[in-house]
Amino acid sequence: MNASPNIAVFPGTFDPVTHGHLDIIDRAAKLFEKLVVGVGDNPLKKEVFTQEERREMLDRHTRHLKNVELRIYKGLTVEFAQAIGARVILRGIRDTVDLHAELELAMTNRIIGNVETVFLMTSGQHVLTSSTLIKQIVEIGKYDADNLGKLVPLDVARMLEERLRGSERVRPNEYD
């Protein structure tokens, strides 16, 4: 397949998808002819949801974007980008810590795969949104569903609660 600079890949584990992810997808869909959201695995992370479940979560919140395609992939992101003819990997950046970590990957992807990386800054209201933190809040914390809905879509919050807490797991109130 011939590479096209108008196709971008936005890779991630999306475990779970957050409003920050959805913001980047929505904005990137306006910048590229085609945006492929790659639902990958990270061997360094223990995922809560299967790749198919994560793809389905994304689908519910992106199907209105006609130039966005969702795909599950395994292996290196740069190889996935090459396989689908993309010359751009899109990454969302929340802060300088993200940027520092992403620069090394971006340079490596360019060297080994001739694929450029484009960074989009996260919108201000999503700067502190982290899938890992959200999972920790649901698993061990106390939270209000309306407040959690500011970080993830409410259907995703419900799925997280069901998966991480389950109806049979009732946590004692450690502050009483």
Description of the structure:
By secondary structure, the protein is α/β, with parallel strands linked by helices. It has a domain at 4-126: Rossmann fold. The protein is 41% helix and 19% strand. It has helices spanning 19-29, 51-62, 77-83, 96-113, 131-140, 145-148, 154-164; strands at 4-12, 34-39, 68-72, 86-93, 116-121. Strands 3-2-1-4-5 form a five-stranded parallel beta sheet, with helices on both faces. Helix 2 links the parallel strand 2 and strand 3. The radius of gyration is 17 Å and the shape is globular. The relative contact order is 0.18. Mean pLDDT is 88; it is low at 167-173.
Write the layout of secondary structure elements.
Layout: E1 4-12, H1 19-29, E2 34-39, H2 51-62, E3 68-72, H3 77-83, E4 86-93, H4 96-113, E5 116-121, H5 131-140, H6 145-148, H7 154-164
Parallel strand pairs: 1-2, 1-4, 2-3, 4-5
